[in-house]
Design brief:
The chain is mainly α. About 65% of the residues lie in helices and about 0% in strands. It contains 12 helices and no strands. The longest helix has 23 residues. The termini are far apart. The model has no long low-confidence stretch (mean pLDDT about 95).
Length: about 190
């Protein structure tokens, strides 16, 4: 690496930390008082993207990488839910990313912009897997909220499930719909359901 100034990279690292406290606003419409953060959503989306990509024969690391960056623009635009988009266009992800990376070293600027552009273009298998992961994570979160008594979360579960396109993503969604949030714990503890 050259001796380029990394000041703008450091600024972005501080900026990205705001996603740890930025809430996913759509859940407020379902009555969830303290929904997960954008960063929490992005983490599990990345994990799910690697799973779906592996099952689909795509590059798991690339799909997870795309998912890591998929909502990074929300440091500047906020999480605009679907109702909000009816009244105000959210920022263009590629334009926001261009602004976020403007002062970064050329190699990093080009890499980040390419990742966001690939995700937004929806053309590569990895982008399709990452986008499915975004929908599956929303569905999974909705199922968790349903289990906590937020009955209005059903809308998010159903809408997210309907938008999943990969075979593996749809199969995972169906499996999740057949389980409850603590089935994994019962299985890990060796408990049987009679």
């Amino acid at each position: 690496m050259s001796d380029q100034d990394l000041g703008d990279v450091a600024h972005f690292l501080w900026e990205s930390g705001t996603l740890k406290t930025a809430r996913r606003t759509g859940w407020w419409m379902a009555g969830v008082r303290d929904p997960e953060s954008v960063a929490e959503h992005a983490w599990r989306t990345s994990l799910i993207a690697s799973v779906i990509a592996t099952l689909e024969g795509a590059d798991a690391a690339r799909a997870a990488h795309l998912a890591v960056w998929h909502d990074s623009q929300e440091t500047r635009t906020g999480d605009v839910n679907h109702l909000g988009k009816k009244y105000a266009e959210p920022g263009d992800s590629t334009a926001v990313t261009a602004d976020q990376t403007a002062g970064m070293p050329d190699v990093l600027r080009k890499a980040v912009r390419a990742v966001v552009a690939e995700y937004e273009a929806k053309e590569t298998p990895e982008a399709v897997c990452a986008r499915d992961a975004d929908k599956l994570e929303c569905m999974l979160q909705g199922l968790e909220y349903l289990d906590q008594g937020y009955t209005s979360a059903r809308r998010w579960v159903d809408n997210s499930r309907a938008r999943i396109v990969t075979k593996s993503g749809r199969r995972l969604a169906d499996e999740l719909l057949a389980q409850t949030p603590l089935d994994w714990l019962r299985a890990a503890m060796g408990e049987t359901t009679d």
